[in-house]
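TL;DR need structure tokens for one chain.
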Amino acid sequence: MEFSTLVDALEQRARYQPDKKAYTFLKDGDVEADTLYYQELERLARAIASKLQSFNASSQRALLVYSPGLEFISAFFGCLYAGVVAVPVYPPRGNQSISRLLGIATDAEATFALTNTFVLANSQRWLGENPDLAKLKWLTTDKIDINLADSWQKPIVNRDTLALLQYTSGSTGTPKGVMVSHGNLLSNCADLDLGWNHNINSTIVTWLPTFHDMGLIYGVIEPLYKGFSCYMMSPVSFLHKPVRWLQAISIYKATHSGAPNFAYDLCVRKITSEQKTSLDLSSWQMALNGAEPVRADVLQRFAQTFKPCGFDLTAFCPGYGLAEATLKVAAVRQQDMPVFLQVDTDALLRNRIVEAKANQQNVQTLVGCGRSEIDTKILIVDPESLRECREEQVGEIWVSGSTVAQGYWRNPEKTQQTFQATLFGSTDKQFLRTGDLGFIKNGELFITGRLKDIIIIQGRNHYPQDIELTVENSHQALRCGCGAAFAVEFKSSEKLVVVQEVERSYLRRLDINEVVGNIRQAVAVEHDIRVHSIVLIKTATIPKTSSGKIARQACRQKLLNNTLDVLTPDTFHKLTAVL
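>> reply
TL;DR here they are.
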């Protein structure tokens, strides 16, 4: 089927596949608690849209404030059916700060907030404390009369119409609203489909949050685009018991599923031998790994660990994308084997790509992130000279094409800086500056790090993720994927600081001197650099983005502001005294 908008897509699915099971929510990861069929979803969308139309809401912004579940999906399409710009967010939990939610509502100039009665009832405290949120028009979509669907008026929308504001996760700065059109979403879905061979009999299992681009576009929109079924669970269900994800894949014979790099590592570490005996992963044809960067050792360990369960390494499809490009920029095709490239580490730190020789020491393995299947053009550019790099040179990744979003919401300065870049001496073609570093080899895109996160000490470049991996492997008391390495200025020179979480089970019996000693020795041996300061912090307190990535710049700022939740105040005071 060909679609001009997402409204057109849902209308056609409801017309031609009315009784097709579209989405199923798994409570606690294993109980079918709610199901939506295409005809049912379309009628819900019409009813919600009709309610919004009664307030003349067209072109206005509506926050979507939902806990995990299917009500988010009907509200999202309800916005599209009303010509309202959807703004996916997540309700604060417990004592969490609502500053992000408030910041998004303010930046988006939201008029409406869509939610359900449960979330609204549990939001009264922070609504009472924040009049700017309370003044929004709050609509509980589970109480909207379904018969309102009969009075729905189809809005005038086209491929260029703004569909949603996707707020960036803020790993290197203040979150900004990316303007994503219907055309952007349809182009990205086409790219995903061509690379991963979906068909009407495909099945996807996802636990990714729907307020994040990967969870929304690959977990919600792509199944609609191709007309196949999706089974969803809460991210918390997966995090509390990782085997639930793989059990759902086994039970529903899922063909496609994806997650960030840390999720595959978590499965290897947490799923027991006994639990593995019940798993059948032979149906899993495409396993997206979309973290930045994808780690070769994690892919290999996962494939080896779950090979007895029917999983094959060829199912892995590493990919690269960002909200500013809607979602996907490049990914490995379903039928292709992941590419593992061994390079000389010293050359990489000098932004050069030199393939490692047999039995060479000081080698790093990089994972290819594939290519685009549509009109996306990818350049590697020197971020200083703005000239295109040679093939063996690392540079900033620049992107153009139909998946590149329209810019940042009402932020013309940032839009010009990021979305309207041109090569030196050229003004005829504009590119998106991703802020990510990488290179292209034999048509395959490789990611090496983020431009803003690069650590430069004594003239040498260091990738923080490499140092963080060394740190977490230096002692069993340190939590995997929960550390940050960055530079701070001390006496007019840059020094390396490491902030690292400790496993909860070690908090009462931690030998701090041993841990610190191990970290210093490991980093010195592996990277030939001295760690100036090490800060050990409590479990689950390191700043992360909404998609679970380490927010290094936010962590650095919390260090400078003395607001990290440190294990030993004495150690922290000594550190901040010298900084």
